[in-house]
Amino acid sequence: MKRALCSISIALLGLALVLPTAGTGSQDQMKETLKLQLPKPMFVGTPKNIRTPNLEPITGKPRGPFLVPVGTVLLSAGKPVTASDKEPVIGELSFITDGKKSGEDGYYVELGPGLQWVQIDLGKSQALSAIVVWHYHSQARVYRDVVVQVSDDKDFIGGVTTLYNNDHDNTSGLGIGKDKEYIETFEGKLVDAKGVKARYVRLCSAGNTSNDMNHYVEVEVYGLPAK
Amino acid sequence: MTKKAFWGLFACAVVGALFLRTFRLDVRPMHSDEANQAVKFGDLLERGEYRYDPKDHHGPTLYYLTLPVARALAGKSLAAVSETTLRLVPAIFGTGLLLLLLLFFGGLTREAVFSAAFLAGLSPALTYYSRFYIQEIVLVFFLAGLMAAGWKYFQTRSGWWAAAAGFAAGMMYATKETSVILFGAIAGAAVIDHLLRPKPAKPQPLKWPAALLHVVLFLASGSITAWLFFTSFLKNPKGLIDSVHAFGIYFSRAGEAGVHAQPWFYYIKTLLYSQFGHGPVWSEAFIVALAVAGSIFAFGSEPGKDGHPRLVRFIFSFTVLALAAYSVIPYKTPWNLLPFYLGVILLAGNGAGLLWRAGRFMVVKVIVLSIMAPGILNLAYQDHRANFVDYANPTNPYVYAQTIPDFIKLIRAVEGIAAGHPEHERMLIKVVAPPDETWPLPWYLRRFTRVGYWTDIAQAGDLRDAPVVIAAAAFSGEAGRDLDSGYQSAFYGLRPEVVLSLYARQDLWNAYLKVRTAKESAKPGR
Prior knowledge:
The complex is a heterodimer.
Chain A: H1 2-30, E1 73-74, E2 81-83, E3 109-111, E4 115-134, E5 147-151, E6 161-165, E7 189-192, E8 197-206, E9 214-216, E10 218-224
Antiparallel strand pairs in A: 1-10, 2-4, 3-9, 4-7, 4-8, 4-10, 5-6, 5-8
Chain B: H1 3-22, H2 32-47, H3 61-74, H4 83-100, H5 110-122, H6 124-129, H7 136-156, H8 159-173, H9 179-195, H10 208-230, H11 239-256, H12 266-272, H13 285-296, H14 309-328, H15 338-358, H16 362-389, H17 406-420, E1 429-432, H18 441-444, E2 451-454, E3 468-472, H19 473-482, E4 487-495, E5 498-505, H20 506-522
Parallel strand pairs in B: 1-2, 1-3
Antiparallel strand pairs in B: 3-5, 4-5
């Protein structure tokens, strides 16, 4: 009798174990890989060949207002500029702070390929509100590894504050940036300086989507002049 | 020039041209037109399917001529086919063009034939488009074949040459719709030749039964060739009718021109003088100047040691008529200059040959050569720049709506991300871009089996389904919002002014960067 009960118990236990498994198995059999019908690419003729400047923004949406402390002025006008590339391929470093922001030839300075920087000396440490940079806006392109830093140290060894960094793979060696890349437009890129005090502003880039060169039409640094 | 010297120099010209046409064929990123042809060819390669498409593609020959090359080098999978394999086809025809020039013997001197072959081999325009997977150089090859077979027929009155000319004409028609412009120019040149022929004509024209038989041979050979190709070798009977319908489409496009509208002098200017921005000056004026010199002989009357004036006159008339026709049409792209440029090259060869023969003494020949040397060196320099330095630089006049090298970085990133994805090449990729910003993605993503292409972001479903999304700049705002968290975004150039954005799931991106950084660190010298 004991043996019979034992046998029934084992059989029931086995059944209890098998049933849910069988249930899952039947569920599995009812599933299949979703076969997506993905759309094929549409054929199209030769695309437009572009060699002419385009001064229109791509998004079409103007930048919203940016609020700064009362008394904020342009600090960078005519200030001296230095760069990692001592002999620009095209133009002069002084173009960067000459106030001329046209997208045409003759208004931009071209630095060599790869990682390059330009640096503006504001003369003294001042509270900065905003930095606006125009790399090259006669063509829709994206500059790589754009990093904007400020410091009171002209060699950027100590006391460096990074205001903007979109170097998402740290090719510049200045750390991985979380900021987004952006397409150049006539509006320039505005970087919030958050009132940080500094004398030197350094902007880095490492080529662009059209070529390996680095360009600057203008950089404007706004802030409260030191008393 | 002795026979021995000719064959030695001619062989050098062919070998040189072959080198220029085949060396580093993969250096230039695929143009969207090349990618378009390549993907269309993929259907033929993998499934044996080809149907002539009069709307978005030219004739069938390029695809069928690619078939043996691709089968031999890559098998039956488009994924295994490389840019080099595809571009070998125009490279072969671009080099074969030089060999066809041998058929012009009797009408052109040895010096002229060698010079034409040398200039064709060294021309930046001819070299550039002999490395370009589109129909143009194939069209030019068969155009040269038609003219050469026509010349041989003129000399021999042989039915075989009539049939050969018909075959070449059929291949031209089955290659590109613009062949009708060239047929018109050839017919016009033949009429001019007939009007200006010396009397009594030499050789005597055939009597009508034989002449009629040769006309029938020419037409039958051409028609059968075109019929076989357009009907996909009888699988698609409608193909030949579609080829006629195509003219409606192409005539309307040629008239409207749209984004490809150019002034009438575009081709002349492109050949004579081009400079864009800070780029270098480009010019094939040296060849054009020699062609002008060679054309003077077209107005002679008697054949002699310097060749046959009727052949030169025919080439001259064809060149002028074809240039005029192409110039009148508002739709212009730089590769369309090749067919009439063939005439310019032949005339330039004749010009160089005449200059060579003008000096009876070696001293004079040396002087002629030293005058021509700077022009030849300049051509060689430009050929090098056009094909191996500025191959994607918009300041190069032969670069037209070209994919820029930055685009390759996008592809490498997608491949790197896929390597870290558990499904690898089965990883879902969503592409949201208008058609003209989609190509050449389908070619470069051919190894991925789950790629969807949408022209409207609203129809692409939830973008977060895909670990990788590629979007046109116009959609980057919406895509960026949808993929703001958990995705890494990066921009890549497609063509000048055209930027694509890549969105990759953050974990896959991080893994890709880790691998990439490790690989770069492992490189010697780092």
